[in-house]
Amino acid sequence: MTTDQFTFTVNKTDGAARTGEIRMPRGVIRTPAFMPVGTAATVKAMYPDQVKALGADVVLGNTYHLMLRPGAERVARLGGLHQFMNWPYPILTDSGGFQVMSLSALRKIDETGVTFQSHIDGSTHVLTPERSIEIQGLLGSDIQMQLDECVKLPCPDEVAEKAMRLSLRWAERCKVAFGEQPGKAMFGIVQGGAVEHLRIESARELAALDLKGYAIGGLAVGEPQDVMLRMIETVEPHMPKEKPRYLMGVGTPDDIVEAVRRGVDMFDCVMPTRAGRHGQVFTRHGRMNLRNAKFAEDTSPLDPESKCTASNTYSRAYLHHLVRSNEILGMMLLTWNNLAYYQDLMAGLRKAIAEGRLEDYVGEVKEGWSKGERDSKAEVGEHADNTAMAVED
After folding, report:
1. CA–CA separation, 213 vs 111, rounded Å?
2. Which of 145, 308, 310, 343 reaches 20 to 30 Å from 190, CA-CA?
3. Over the chain, what is the mean pLDDT?
4. Does the annotation flag 191 for ligand binding?
5. What span, in angstroms and rounded, lies between the C-alpha atoms of 6 and 267?
6. Which sites are catalytic (predicted)?
7. Was 50 annotated as part of a binding site?
């Protein structure tokens, strides 16, 4: 059942982990939730109804990309992002700050905002906190993110502190610009690099703004997984328990499982879609690189127990052929498999938390991954670095 207001309810907890529901006019988001990334108003290589059928309650759109092409005002004239991309369910938009950091060869950050050159045509644009919220409003986004400054790790403590304090001031301006929008939400973003006291200060100051949700930003940008998890553990006690918590740009299945254990409710990452387009698949038995010659005559499906057609029907040999031939169908099928696996993982986490058996479930999941790795060495690294993924998705 939907509502005309934005509400969040925690239904069950298991340790620090929680399962619950975000309710809003366009639908219910079951948490923990994974949001497929639809940067340019499309989840690459997928039909919208496929994405929904896999269990996604919400997708992510990107302010930076959509403001440059086709333009926020144009999307608004065409009925808003939901109608434009044929996705009538909740949409979260990020602020554009991360892409400005990672894509713009020339950019200038000051108190006002960010002046940058488009990676498409070199044209100059100014993104202020107020303009970011305005763009997200023109798109019709249900959950809007504050503009923040995201630094690449590792970085000097003084650089992390300066960006964190600027992000706090921008959060206040975004809150004013957002105003009162019944049924919608604006989330603040905790920054502070890998410095614990900065993260704590950021979380406390944002909590004082009484926003509808809070994100942890500036992670999965080059740091090891143990640093990311330590930052989550540092911040979690200072984030309001009655508000949703969103770990931005994360990550691998293992990143997600470990973050859920530490109390995170929402995730997004380009990894499942990007990996699928490049021949990498995620399954219950770990990852496979379908470019590998050993699959050339393997008649078994990716996962006969999966409910996804891409996973249980097509042979690895056929998928290997499609990948090696750069056929579009290969990209479509492997992306479908990967998003199905991610949504199945989230459903499993929600069920396990509700039943009070999260640790047992995590053990079973990790044993499945390790068995696959014992059978066939994994070909890709364990921790997502989103700075390498900003353009493609």
Report:
1. 24
2. 343
3. 94
4. yes
5. 18
6. 94, 268
7. no
**Which residues carry out catalysis?**
94, 268
Distances (CA, A) of 251 to 107, 219, 261, 320: 27, 10, 14, 25
The pLDDT value recorded for residue 152 is 86
Angle between helices 253-261 and 358-375 (to 10 degrees): 160
Distance between CA atoms of 50 and 157, rounded to whole angstroms?
A: 44
pLDDT at 381: 46
pTM value surpassing 0.85: yes
The reported pLDDT for the residue numbered 165 is 98
Contacts of 332 (CB under 8 A, 6+ apart): 45, 46, 310
Residue 200 corresponds to which tokens in the numbers above? 């704590």
Does 95 count as an annotated binding residue?
Answer: yes
Tokens at 135, concatenated: 């763009």
Residue 264 neighbours by CB under 8 Å, 6+ apart: 32, 216, 232, 236, 245, 246, 247
CB 301 within 8 A of CB 312: yes
Q: Is 254 annotated among the ligand-binding residues? A: no
Beta strands in the chain, from DSSP E residues, in sequence order:
7-14, 17-24, 27-31, 33-35, 59-62, 91-94, 107-109, 114-117, 124-127, 143-145, 185-190, 213-216, 245-247, 266-268, 280-283, 286-289
203: phi then psi, degrees, rounded to nearest 5: -65, -45
Taking alpha carbons only, the member of 199, 213, 205 closest to residue 142 is 213
Are the C-beta atoms of residues 192 and 164 closer than 8 Å to each other? yes
Domains and CATH numbers, the chain: 7-268 (3.20.20.105), 277-387 (no CATH)
Please check whether residue 269 is in contact with residue 251, taking contact to mean a CB–CB distance below 8 angstroms: yes
